[in-house]
Amino acid sequence: MLTQAPKGTLDMLPQDSHRWQSIERSMRKACALAGYREIRTPIFEHTELFQRGVGDTTDVVQKEMYTFEDKGNRSITLKPEGTAGAVRAFIESHMYADALPAKLYYSACPCFRYEKPQSGRLRQFHQNGVEVFGAKDASVDAEIIKLAMDILKANGIEGLKLNINSIGCPNCRKAYLEKLRDYLLPKLPTLCKTCQERFERNPMRILDCKEDAPKLTDAPAMLDNLCEDCASHFEKLKGYLGAMNLQYAIDPRIVRGLDYYTKTVFEIITDTPDGGELTVCGGGRYDGLVEELGGPATPGIGWGMGIERMLMVQDMRGTAPKAPDYLDAFVVTLGDEARMAGVKLVNELRGQGVKADLDHAARSMKAQFKYANKLGVKNVIVIASDELQRGTVKLRDMVNSTEQELPMEQVVEMFANS
User: Fold this and answer.
1) What pairing do the DSSP bridges indicate for beta strands 329-333 and 379-383?
2) Which of 16, 265, 349, 359 is 20 to 30 Å from the Cα of 278, by its Cα?
3) Cα–Cα distance for residue pair 386/4, rounded to 1 Å
């Protein structure tokens, strides 16, 4: 239907836009304080970027991407996440030749995944995210985690729980994957079809399966098989988190859903009013991704948080920010001469940063008052023939139902200074 949004999409309506703007402002403010700069990448990329970057064994690539062939017979995909595009831009622009680390962020980045729409999970959704390239020390891992926690709390999302894990590097993961396959092999016939397909190519993802993970509580943990470098990195991360007074829990089952992760992975979870839990941010290291996509060996780390999910949690907790006043003043006029004066006054008010408007539908004075009331305007400025002759206006307080008359030249100054 032409008058119905596609399944899995939502409109951001004017009455809700202040909530989006508040989330974006808090993101920009926190990132600026920590030295992060904004990056904006295209809404679509070459499909191969996600196949190589996100991983062709992931659900995202296998089942959820919006992929199409353009008029030049090129395979194009609407981006399902923000990291791969940021890495591509980092390589293409030779940002690796600049001062490193490069600390980047994006806000309200549109992403697309074809999956069953449900609460807080849409086919078109928007992400805030950070990416850091060229920093190998675990101090940056702790920094981006603290950044995420601060942004969530600034938006009324409390009751946060931080879970961390290390999934090692290619050096230590190879031996661990053999142990994991030996453990899984006898159980393979009882696993779901997707996990059976993952057995050879990416068995760690089996530990992330909602259907099969509960059966595998005694599976070997990557944490017990880390090489010296990965183990040292994880210990440093815990130390830095402690220095920031961030409480955390170690969850050896976190593997995340994308293939590019190495070493640190984490999730930030909030409790819900019904006693459940909801992941509101996730991320980790991807030290091999820049090189995998054709750039020089460069460590990387980042996270993403869905804006729609943040809005949902605000609704659950009753912490959505109050809408600001739509207008500071509305000018009601009677007659053509008064209307001309009203247009001049509104223009002067706006020039001083005052949110002001007047009727553009040639309504009666009574209808103008009714319209202003519907808009929730607290202050109405009335200009009619009598006021024009005296060089005054009437200022009506719509909340207290009071009215005063004052010289027209004082109106702009009064509102500008209020």
Assistant:
1) parallel
2) 16
3) 50
Residue 294 structure tokens? 């054709």
Q: 3-state SS string over 194-237?
A: HHHHHHHHCHHHHHHCCCCHHHCCCCCCHHHHCCHHHHHHHHHH
Query: 340 to each of 4, 100, 155, 334, how far by Cα in Å?
Result: 41, 58, 43, 10
Give per-residue pLDDT as tens, 69-79: 999 999 999 99
Alpha helices in 100-190 (DSSP H): 138-154, 170-184
Nearby residues of 64 by Cβ (< 8 Å), 6 or more positions away: 80, 113, 114, 115
3-state helix, strand, coil in the chain (%, to 5): 45, 25, 35
Mention the CATH class of domain 329-417. alpha beta
Place of tokens 């027209």: 408
Q: How many CB atoms lie within 10 A of CB 388?
A: 18
The residues, any chain, with a CB within 8 Å of residue 297's CB and separated by 6 or more, are: 288, 290, 291
Q: Are 173 and 227 in contact (CB under 8 A)?
A: no
* Pairing relationship of beta strands 249-250 and 262-271 according to DSSP bridges: unpaired
The pLDDT tens digits of the residues spanning 277-312 come to: 999 999 999 999 999 999 999 999 999 999 999 999
**Which residue in the block uniquely carries the two structure tokens 């990965």?**
230
Nearest-angstrom CA–CA distance, 319 and 160: 14
Locate 61 and state its tokens: 């690539």
Residue 245, C-beta contacts closer than 8 angstroms, at least 6 positions apart: none
Residue by residue, DSSP assigns 231-292 as HHHHHHHHHHHHHTT---EE-TT---SSTT-EEEEEEEEEE-TTS-EEEEEEEEE-TTHHHH
Q: Does residue 366 have a pLDDT over 90?
A: yes
14-169+227-317 and 329-417: identical CATH topology = no
DSSP state of 135: -
CA–CA separation, 52 vs 259, rounded Å?
9
Q: Which token pair is 273?
A: 């009013």
Of 266, 264, 267, 268, whose CA–CA distance to 233 is shortest?
A: 264
pTM: 0.91
14-169+227-317 CATH: 3.30.930.10
Listed residue (293, 232, 303) closest to 265, CA to CA: 303
Q: What is the DSSP letter of 191?
A: S
